Amino acid sequence: MSAEIRLADIVVDCTDEGQLCAFYEGLLGWKRGEMFGHPTLTSAAGVTLLFVQEEDYVSPVWPEEEGRQQKQVHFDFLVPDVAEAVAKAEALGGRKADAQFGGEVFTTVLDPAGHPLCLVKEG
């Protein structure tokens, strides 16, 4: 019987790891740390985001456009109040995506590095 494979962390590439970590720290309130010389945030449940600055990072476009950098992953965060969470994300440097598909259930926001994230109504 083989050992269980467990998620260690999620690496988030960007052009400014300090800026992106600060955005998510302000939005989520997770505990800040460091791993491999890069900033991290860890949730109470143990999920860790590791922010890594890449000089050749290209922001994705969303929705996808042919010939442009596509998103490769996005985050869904459960929130008690979607409008309040969107306003908080915008105040921290994110921006509401031009295209929206979630109706009253979720809103897509782009973080400062261009990664799409959905703020999803709890319940």
Give a verbal description of the structure:
With about 120 residues, the protein is α/β, with parallel strands linked by helices. It has one domain (about 10-120): 2,3-Dihydroxybiphenyl 1,2-Dioxygenase, domain 1 (Roll), CATH 3.10.180.10. It is about 20% helix and about 30% strand. The protein has helices spanning about 15-30, 80-90; strands spanning about 10-15, 30-35, 40, 50-55, 75-80, 95, 105-110, 115-120. The strands form 2 sheets. Strands 1-4-3-2 form a 4-stranded mixed beta sheet, covered by helices on one side. A 4-stranded mixed beta sheet has the order 5-8-7-6, covered by helices on one side. The radius of gyration is 15 Å and the shape is globular. The mean pLDDT is about 95. This is VOC family protein.
